[in-house]
Design goal:
By secondary structure, this protein is an alpha/beta fold. The chain has seven helices and ten strands. Helix 7 links the parallel strand 9 and strand 10.
């Protein structure tokens, strides 16, 4: 179980003044659950991932993963692939797993499954943007993470490439059943991927609404059922994407598990 209880997270802005990014944020995720986090720009979504991942420990609050603090067993995927240009594709993937035969075997299997078997010895600069994202996705899964943190990993990609990567992500997640926290600005994407969507308020960010998504997989953002749930949510909460909704805890189910698309 991932348990997040942040009383306050602040830092100095560019003018040196204190800025409160998160306050009163409580969020739990069950083992193997896929949770998407949606909120307005500047609401603290990336800050939340940094805290959960243990990259930022200067926070009033507590994060635990199965009773342990953040750290080992956590995978990351960021907005940019962040590949090392002087390392080959295979070396970039194995970099996070250590020099072991088992890690190299997993890396080769992942890359082959992603259609990158013929470019394992290439350098990132020779790959397209979509291929680089596939390498980053393989790197995130090669450690067989218990927790995967994803910060808008498919932003700026064309629709077919993004849909292909989303399908790969879901397939890998269903295979390893790690817990996923996925940050996105795109509500269609969140509804296509998540078991549950958590909406944050404007800064200081806190959870203002949680929506359980029961539409059957596989789903695409453009699917009619996803579009119907999207429309119903915004009809109920017109300012939801601006961070305004009913109080946290007013949880609603989205979809009916058979493609219905109603929120109840």
């Amino acid at each position: 179980m991932l348990e997040i209880a942040i009383g306050r997270k602040s830092f100095a802005d560019r003018g040196g003044r204190p800025h409160v990014a998160l306050a009163g944020l409580d969020l739990n995720a069950a083992p193997g659950e896929f949770v998407c986090i949606v909120g307005p720009s500047g609401c603290g979504k990336t800050t939340l991932l940094n805290v959960v991942g243990g990259l930022d420990r200067d926070v009033e609050g507590r994060v635990s993963i199965g009773g342990a603090p953040p750290g080992a067993g956590t995978g990351f995927m960021f907005q940019e692939p962040r590949l090392m240009p002087w390392l080959t594709v295979l070396e970039n993937v194995t970099l996070v797993a250590g020099p072991s035969a088992a890690a190299e075997r997993r890396a080769r299997e992942l890359l082959a499954a992603m259609g990158l078997g013929e470019v394992m010895d290439a350098f990132p600069g020779h790959l397209s943007g979509g291929m680089q994202r596939r390498v980053a996705l393989a790197r995130a899964f090669v450690i067989e993470p218990k927790l995967l943190l994803m910060d808008e990993p498919f932003v700026s990609l064309d629709v077919p490439t993004a849909d292909r990567l989303r399908a790969m992500l879901v397939e890998l997640w269903q295979r390893c059943r790690c817990t996923v926290l996925f940050v996105t600005h795109d509500l269609h994407e969140a509804l296509a991927l998540a078991d549950r969507v958590c909406f944050l308020s404007a800064a200081p960010g806190r959870v203002v609404l949680e929506v359980v998504v029961t539409l059957r997989r596989p789903r695409l953002p453009a699917d009619p059922a996803v579009q119907a749930v999207h429309a119903a949510l915004l009809a109920q909460h017109p300012q939801l994407l601006a961070g305004l909704a009913q109080p946290a805890g007013a949880e609603r189910n989205a979809g009916c598990g058979s493609g219905g698309g109603s929120c109840r």
